[in-house]
Specification:
Pfam families: Frag1 (PF10277)
Shape: elongated
Strand content: under 5%
Distance between the termini: 14 Å
Oligomer: single chain
Number of strands: 0
Number of helices: 7
Helix content: over 70%
Order of helices and strands: HHHHHHH
Protein name: DRAM1 protein
Subcellular location: Endomembrane system
Largest sheet: none
Family: Belongs to the DRAM/TMEM150 family.
Number of domains: 1
Keywords: Membrane, Transmembrane, Transmembrane helix
Structural class: mainly alpha
Length: about 220
């Protein structure tokens, strides 16, 4: 089905499918191995211990690569559309691409430096990945509105902006609650110290992560 898509629509489609599989497979493996509690662990918790750590690292690195390719194609697409419409400055388009690629670099850091092995580097990578990702999709939503009605429908723009707003709202408490956790661990159980902070932060993290996936899903039609 992916190969039959016109244009380069298979790129964001593959990104969405691969990234979703990366999260789900590592989660299932970690839960079945008894390494994490099944009820809302951190995404990174599901890829900390072997064997799921190898699968998580490999698949997230591929996701970062696919995201980089998707963002670059999106950049080229906007540049081409902008030749006739002039709806956004080229410097703004380039800045948006750079922010997105920074987020992809953060993903690579998260996949390479595991949570328990090098927690400080891992946390910096996660902050860069999620922070840059939120800024990227917000800027892309604004650019989408500027390209209406010639290159995008208002419905698509509204969907993208809604995803961006939800991701932004979830990103802030994710950081706030995570900063209040006084220990680095993956085997959380209800009732222990800082569990509430962990639980709320983890919910927000999953919300932002799947917000990114849903956002890239809206690129499929554009890339056709």
């Amino acid at each position: 089905m992916l190969c039959c898509m016109p244009g380069v629509a298979f790129v964001p489609a593959l990104l969405v499918c691969w990234s979703s599989a990366a999260f789900i497979i590592s989660y299932v493996m970690a839960v079945l191995a008894g390494h994490v509690e099944p009820f809302v662990p951190y995404i990174s918790d599901t890829g900390t211990k072997p064997p799921e750590s190898g699968v998580f690292g490999f698949m997230i690195n591929i996701s970062a690569l696919l995201a980089s390719i998707t963002m670059y194609i999106r950049y080229l697409l906007i540049e081409k559309q902008n030749e006739s419409s002039h709806f956004v400055r080229s410097s703004c388009n380039m800045f948006t691409l750079c922010v997105g690629l920074m987020g992809c670099t953060g993903m690579g850091i998260v996949a390479t430096f595991q949570e328990l092995a090098v927690p400080s580097v891992h946390d910096i990578g996660a902050l860069v990945a999620f922070g840059s990702g939120v800024v990227y999709i917000t800027l892309q939503s604004i650019i989408s509105y500027k390209s209406c009605p010639r290159w995008n429908t208002y419905l698509v723009c509204h969907i993208r902006m809604a995803i961006s707003v939800i991701s932004c709202i979830a990103f802030i408490p994710m950081i706030v609650f995570a900063s209040k956790i006084s220990m680095t661990k993956i085997d959380w159980t209800p009732g222990e110290k800082d569990y509430t902070y962990h639980f709320m932060s983890a919910i927000c993290e999953w919300t932002v992560a799947f917000g990114f996936i849903c956002f890239f899903l809206t690129f499929i039609r554009d890339f056709q």
